[in-house]
Task: structure prediction
Amino acid sequence: IVEPGGLAEGTIQHEGEELGYVIEGEVELSVDGETFSLNTGDSFFFPSHLPHGYRNPGTTRCRIIWVNTPSTF
Result:
């Protein structure tokens, strides 16, 4: 869950892969210097060694199923 205005503290990099599905709301996902606007029903995948971060630019809560492999959190 990413609340309105919520964001990652800077960029993150680690080994592995990530994928996700936006259940509700909107999120801006930045991966390797590119920013993608994702909304309900959108999905994503990227290698975790690329610098990445996120923020919720909307006015409502964003809910995401977000999977890392290997588990890092």
